Amino acid sequence: MKTSSSRIGFWIATCALLGVILASWLGPKGIAWYFDPPVDIGVNCRAATEWSMRRLLIFQSFGFGLGAIAGLLLSRRRGESS
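^ thats the sequence. predicted structure below, dont judge the formating
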């Protein structure tokens, strides 16, 4: 059975938003654990902050994209079972 485009859009938007929320929550913890900023934090924090925020934005972008893909897949799967 065909799935309506509004249902597909709903699932893509919902899962993309969930992906961004999870990336925002888990991203800083992952950055702190995995990365060691390449600057001396005791002297100047600006470079370290800019560096880590760039990494956070990249992490959020991947979370948004993966969430959108998951939403698309879920919308198609639910459309087949209806």
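The first helix runs from residue 5 to 34.
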